[in-house]
Design brief:
- The protein has 297 residues and is of the alpha/beta class.
- It contains nine helices and twelve strands.
- The strands form three sheets. It has a five-stranded mixed β-sheet.
- β8 and β9 (134-140) form a beta hairpin.
- α3 crosses α9 (285-291), α5 (188-199) packs antiparallel against α7 and α7 packs across α8 (254-266).
- The chain starts with a strand and ends in a 6-residue tail after the last helix.
- Bound molecules: zinc ion.
- Zinc ion is lined by residues 157, 173, 175, 177, 181, 183.
Length: 297
């Protein structure tokens, strides 16, 4: 049996997947904000409860909004700041007396979709998180590429490719880059800010995408063009068999109609459109991908 934990800022979720790949248990609790130690205890309790309910033990993978630095062995780049600076994998191994694999939640999303989601049957899958932030992950042959710096797939902090004259001014990103990261152009908040700037009022991202008004159409045209340029640069490096989109903006159905031909236009003569697919598992991808971090069980 495989156990997966999704450790988020507001909830901790556990899922158990049996040998046939079937989900046999799912449970969630509120993330304790008291202390890091309370978080470790809450995870250990979820695992022990699941195992006593199911009458067997399992392998354990954990998805976190960050990564464990290979240099220090401590959590870095996490927006759940309570985790930063702690050896989360080692502390869980101590609490649960077994090896524990910890991975970035975008990598877990990609692994989940590559294993039994939209990317099933495809060898090279590029998973895209398109929401409040822009992230991603790479799976090859059912295995996640973590990379020596644990940043493989982090395309959201590349500069926007082939900027037009009106896109060259750049802006500061929280990551420290000064030339306008992709995330700052095509995240959900960026899309809403572009619409607000143009139309003088607020609309949610999926509303902008569905609207027929001229301002909304102009903002969406820029969005599709920027997304296509950004993904074409991924295609030139990785040439994935499938690109699977997740995150809040994955609900914009026009993405799946607009992207294939637009990516083909910007990539290096691919002689065919890119395969761009909507995710299957939605919000469950973190917990499912975490479970699949132990593929050989
Ligand atoms: Zn950045």
């Amino acid at each position: 049996m495989r156990l997966g934990i999704d450790l988020g800022g507001t909830k901790i979720e556990i899922a158990a997947i049996d040998r046939g790949g079937r989900e046999v248990l799912r449970h969630r609790v509120t993330t304790p904000h008291a202390s890091y130690d309370a978080t470790i205890r809450a995870i250990a309790e979820l695992v022990k409860d699941a195992e006593s309910k199911l009458g067997e033990t399992g392998t354990l993978g954990v998805a976190i909004p960050g990564a464990i630095s290979p240099k220090t062995g401590l959590v870095k780049n996490a927006n759940s700041t309570m985790l930063i600076g702690h050896p989360l994998d080692k502390d869980l191994e101590k609490a649960l007396s077994r090896p524990v694999r910890v991975a970035n939640d975008a990598n877990c999303f990609t692994l989940s979709e590559a294993t039994d989601g939209a990317g099933k049957g495809h060898d090279v899958v590029f998973g895209v998180i398109l929401g409040t932030g822009v992230g991603g992950g790479i799976c090859v042959g059912g295995r996640v590429l973590h990379g020596p710096h644990r940043i493989a797939g982090e395309w959201g902090h590349n500069p926007l490719p082939a900027p037009r004259a009106d896109e060259k001014s750049g802006f500061d990103c929280y990551c420290g880059a000064k030339d306008g990261c992709i995330e700052g152009w095509i995240s959900g908040p960026a899309l809403q800010a572009q619409y607000r700037h143009r139309a003088g009022r607020d609309m949610i991202a999926t509303g902008i995408a569905a609207s027929d008004e001229a301002d909304a159409r102009a903002v969406m045209e820029d969005f599709y063009d920027r997304l296509a340029r950004s993904l074409a640069s991924i295609v030139n490096v990785l040439d994935p068999d499938a690109i699977v989109i997740g995150g809040g903006l994955s609900k914009i159905e026009a993405i799946y109609r607009e992207m294939p031909a637009r990516i083909e236009k910007y990539a290096f003569h691919p002689e065919g459109p890119a395969l761009v697919l909507k995710n299957v598992h939605g919000d469950s991808s973190g917990v499912r991908g975490a479970a699949w971090l132990w593929p050989e069980a």
